[in-house]
Amino acid sequence: MYQQNELNIYESTQLQKIKDFKNEAPSVISQGIGTVLKPLTYLTEKMIPEAAIKGALDFSNSAAKWLTDINDIKRDAKVTNIEELRYADLELCDKLADEVHNWAIGIASAEGGVAGAFGIAGMAADFPAIITLALRTIHKIGICYGYESKTELDNQFVLGILSASGANSVKEKEMALLTLKNIETILIKQSWKTMAKKAAEQQLSKEGIVIAIKNLAKQLGINLTKRKALQAIPIIGAGIGATVNGWYIKEIGWAARRIFQERWLIENGKIIEIEY
Hints:
Elements: H1 9-23, H2 29-36, H3 38-47, H4 50-67, H5 71-77, H6 90-116, H7 123-144, H8 152-165, H9 170-193, H10 197-206, H11 213-227, H12 236-267
């Protein structure tokens, strides 16, 4: 970690938390559930195939962007332009993100409870709904730090966060974080040098760091079906669905917050990079 400008106490605390997030191994809860409930996991995978998740991803990112309003953030932050938050106060950005995060957890729990009451049949609607909410949560949290998704580069960054938070192994998480770092480098250069959108996207493609939707769909399929195995049982699935969806969005939100915090700190000249 290389420091340029002086960090205040709050920023120093958040910096350590970012580092802790990067070093934290993916949740083993879903792995354990997947092993114990192998028959239900198999049934869930058959009910919600990888192709369906890929289709949900293709649709959900556009839907999530459309559903991401910015007026409430501008009102609460007392800014006229979202980009002002890039150079505001990190603690303010975190407070805005906290409200977005808590709201998303509540909605995810409610949606999961309704879908879970119908057992495995409810999963057909639950999977695209939770993926859309996950992506909307990432988009909305990014706005809290001044980063509105407007280009393909921004979309790739959002998908990278989804990949990092839904990793099934340490290796998957490390690969996702490396991809994010490469995209982040291009985005920051674009910001500092006002690089043309087309040139930046050509650089992204040239460096081969475009998030493969097919691979991401496979990763999410493994992660979500293991988490949701018990949801296949009607009635008790309501409680499981609410808990699983709430926990999933909680993890998504924290990943987004830590990654956007890091980007904010770099763009404000507080750090160059975080070694982990």
